[in-house]
Specification:
Elements (H helix, E strand, L loop, with lengths): L1 H8 L5 H7 L5 H14 L4 H10 L5 H10 L2
Helix pairs in contact: 1-3, 2-3, 3-4, 3-5
Length: 71
């Protein structure tokens, strides 16, 4: 929930923390962080999302989060 909340704040200062969370082992944490990064729509997040999009975890929830974040 906290990761999602950060995405709705509009605060790009949250990006480093969200990037760290996007690399967690817990799928739901990763998905929430990636979605939040996408919600921020900050210029500096484009490269982060692109690199995360190419990382395959095999979990469908990661795929959905990445797809939604890139919209």
């Amino acid at each position: 929930e906290s990761a999602l909340g950060l995405g709705f704040t509009g605060e790009t200062r949250a990006v480093p923390a969200l990037v760290t969370l996007a690399k967690e082992t817990d799928t739901l944490v990763r998905a929430a962080a990636v979605y939040a990064i996408g919600e921020l729509r900050a210029k500096e997040t484009a490269q982060v999302l692109a690199s995360l999009a190419t990382a395959s975890t095999g979990d469908w929830r990661d795929y959905i989060a990445r797809r939604e974040a890139l919209k």
